[in-house]
Amino acid sequence: MAIAEEEQVSALKQKLRELVESIVDRDDYTVHAADKAIHALSALKDLKSTTFHSTNMEHTPVPLHFRCPLSDHLMTDPVILTTGQTFDRPFIQKWLNEVNGVCPQAQEVLSLCILTPNFLLQGMISEWCKENGVDLPKPIFDIHDEQLTEAHKHRLRSLLFKLSLSLSEQKEAARELRQLAKRMSAIRTLFGNSQMVNLLMRPVSIGTASMDPDLHDDLIATLLNISINDTNKRLLAENEKVISFLIDSLKSGTVQTRSNAAAAVFSMSSLDSNKHIIGKSGAIKYLVDLLEEGDPLAMKDAASALFKLCFARENIAKTVREGAVQIILGKIVDHVLVDELLSLLALLATHSKAVEALVNHGGVRFLLDILRENTVERIKENSAVILHLICYHDREKRAEIREEEMANGTLSRLVQNGSSRAKRKASSILHCLGIDESTSHNNPLPSVTINSTSSSN
């Protein structure tokens, strides 16, 4: 167990001991004290569960980019600092509180201590866990989280009522609802019924075109925060008013509002049934538009949402039809979000229409350049995955790939020095091209044996 975890366990036990003693020793103990004891015990249980799962993962090495640089454990709630580094939320939050806002990697004082959820990485971690039979540990919550009281419930009802009053009162209520839903998991739980969600949607009846931009953004962000609760995801996706509001927000909100709407789509798409509902809603077109038009953070949210949606096969075809392949290639050429967009492109390339679009827009030459010149392991790996799919789906492009291999030995070097997945893909491409892999290993300009019978596996 890491030192940080041991300290947290010790603090939880001490807090629980004090609470239990006060309850046992006093006849007039409060319900609030009992709630706090239950919360501390629950946090201790979650932490024990996390430690148990980490022991289960000893025989399944966690990729380095999925580990928090502070805890060295699999991240459960990855967030990005303004410096661009990603950490697990509870550990970076504790670090920033103790070290006065200094980034642990860049050693820079942060002018803004903003923690932006890294939804794309979170999705990739989730899929890796599924593929490797690893249970993703529950996020570790701070033991000082606020407790839900009757006062909070009354305040929530009051805020929802204010959403039916004047614009200034609606804006004030929406701003506070956004913060409460972000900070308190118990508040998110209270939105687990249709009536509460419909009360939240009251201001939407006027339509987004004439809605105040601040009110619009706060309502969308509230939906995003509510969707963090797993039991709310299905409820939100099956609410036609919510889906319509998300679509309108992706289409015509400010860039920040569109970004939050994309993040909400990503969050809700964790459920397979929601992937189909959202895919049929028309959201994909506007996510692709945001991918093209947004700032880097908005583009990352759009890419994350599309990545998650495209695990439903029919959504890949829709994404390709909306021109995503061309847009992604253009962004990568401009060195924008190369790693994230190549991950999305590797998923899209499992569809023949995406391969066709890649070939038509010069994707083969570009991927070969990346394999030859880029040094980032994951970027090279995804490039090899895409090139492998092209090689097996488009026979005409094999000559171009073979020519590159004869001139530079790019794939042979990848077989020798790449990640295990990149090595497998590069080796398979060489086999498809009829190139003797054993000869290639010892010769930067590999000898070529034309294999006229080679075909797709």
TrEMBL record:
Pfam families for this protein: ARM_PUB, U-box
Ranges of residues in domain U-box: 61-135
Organism classification: Eukaryota, Viridiplantae, Streptophyta, Embryophyta, Tracheophyta
Catalyzed reactions per annotation: S-ubiquitinyl-[E2 ubiquitin-conjugating enzyme]-L-cysteine + [acceptor protein]-L-lysine = [E2 ubiquitin-conjugating enzyme]-L-cysteine + N(6)-ubiquitinyl-[acceptor protein]-L-lysine
Biochemical pathway: Protein modification; protein ubiquitination
Keywords annotated in UniProt: Repeat, Transferase, Ubl conjugation pathway
GO biological process, one term: protein ubiquitination
Protein name: RING-type E3 ubiquitin transferase
EC number: 2.3.2.27
GO molecular function: ubiquitin protein ligase activity
